[in-house]
Amino acid sequence: MMRKIARHAEVNQQAGLPPSWRRGILLGSGLLVLLVAFLLVRASLQPPYVPEVTGKPSAVVDQTNFDYGTVPNGSRIETTFHVKNVGDQQLFIVGEPQVEAVVGCCPPQTTVSQKFLNPGEEATVSMNFSMHTGMDGQHEFRVHVRTTDPDNPDQEVVVLSNWVQQ
User: Is 124 within 8 Å of 113 (Cβ atoms)?
Assistant: First the structure.
């Protein structure tokens, strides 16, 4: 038995690492293996994406109308909606979404989280705006999101508000 212990100590010294480091490396390696196994199991539990449309990309907007009613001047409105690719081919959002001022003034700028959407993915489109004295009254904005959806390339979202003095 003593010969085995001596041999083990000799091998450990040849490795050039203190025993506490070797234990740490073994523990870290074990944790890494457990993490990879967890991620693989988790990914396999998610149901596969089933496209609603086949043979092409297809864009769907989760909310197409926003009516904020009466809003005091100086308030800030944040509008957020999602564009999802429900097709089986990649969808591309062309350029930045454009805001048309149908009634009122000062169309806000938009941001889009991503422009290339694989099947099942969605992008977030958002815009913030505020009005001040002199900009009172009804406002109607139409947000145009242009995509490579062959059946409906211009997704439109209507944003209504009525700005009043406080």
Answer: yes
CA distance 129 to 55: 38
Are the C-beta atoms of 136 and 102 separated by less than 8 Å?
Answer: no
Record the tokens describing residue 144, joined without a space.
């145009």
Indicate if the pLDDT at residue 6 is higher than 80.
no
Alpha-carbon dihedral of residues 53, 146, 116, 77, nearest 10 degrees?
A: -110
Angle at 153 between CA 147 and CA 156, to 5 degrees: 90
How confident is the model at residue 9, as a pLDDT?
53
As a whole number, the mean pLDDT across the chain is 89
d(CA 163, CA 166): 9
Are the C-beta atoms of residues 148 and 83 closer than 8 Å to each other?
no
**Residue 159 pairs with which residues in a beta bridge?**
66, 141
Residue written as token pair 């074990």: 30
- At 43-84, the pLDDT tens digits run 667 688 899 999 999 999 999 999 999 999 999 999 999 999
The amino acid present at 36, given as its one-letter code, is V
